[in-house]
Amino acid sequence: MRTPNFNRLTQSELAALAAVLLLGAYCTATGQEQARAAAGSSTTARENPNKSARAGDASALFEIGRRYEFGIETPPDTFIAARFYRLAARQGLARAEYSLGRLYFSGDGVPRNQREAAKYFRRAAGKGYALAQHRLARAYELGQGLRQNLVEAYRWYSLSAKSLETSRLNLEAMTSRMTAAQLAQAQTATNQIIAKLDGLPSAEETELRASPVGAGLIPSGR
């Protein structure tokens, strides 16, 4: 069977293809799930991504990519996973940008390209996605796809260290290698990005608000 050229398919064509790719996986739905569907109950993109993916929902497209990457209810295929991550990333979904960056970094499903990986890590990091902030900091620290820059590494580690212990440890280790001038510059840069992000919802919350289902789960007053 000839492998389809995903790079030449439009977003709508790929979204429609999602239903075909996962059809077998969802033919085993339980009687309870079928009863809910018959009753007209709404389901989230994570529970039933096919319908939402056909409508171009970014979270649903990401979920299909995730299932193909990790072989959840379908044989693993990072080539297909990368294509669906890309569709979701084009809509600015932070976790899709981060996931696509991971694949570029490792060369799974796409040609290995650390510069391209850093590009997607940066996009997600700017939305407050902690894992992407950590990977971007690591890229700056080691010069992976970016020019080595300890000041930038310090800045992004400082942000991700709020929720990731690994970032905190890396930050402590790196600080001991920096000069006083570098530390002063890094702290100034960190304060600037914190001020920019302060008060903004997390990437996960932003994505929930954008979802037809998730919009009703977060109080509008925040």
Summarize the structure.
The chain is mainly α.
Structural commentary:
The protein is an all-alpha fold and 222 residues long. It has a domain at 115-202. 63% of the residues lie in helices and 0% in strands. It contains 13 helices and no strands. Helix 8 crosses helix 9 (130-142). The protein is elongated, with a radius of gyration of 20 Å. The N and C termini lie far apart (51 Å). The relative contact order is 0.09.
Considering the chains and any ligands shown, give keywords for the structure:
disordered C terminus; elongated; 13 helices; single chain; mainly alpha
Average pLDDT reading: 78
User: So how many helices?
Assistant: 13
Tell me roughly what share of residues is in helical segments.
55-70%
Q: Give the percentage of residues in beta strands.
A: under 5%
How widely separated are the two ends? Answer: 51 Å
Taking pLDDT < 50 over at least 5 consecutive residues as the criterion, the unreliable ranges are 23-43, 208-222
- Decide which structural class fits the backbone: mainly alpha
Q: Topology as H/E string? A: HHHHHHHHHHHHH
Task: Describe the secondary-structure layout.
Layout: H1 11-21, H2 23-26, H3 31-38, H4 49-54, H5 58-70, H6 78-89, H7 94-106, H8 114-125, H9 130-142, H10 150-160, H11 165-175, H12 180-197, H13 203-210
Helix pairs in contact: 5-6, 6-7, 7-8, 8-9, 9-10, 10-11, 10-12
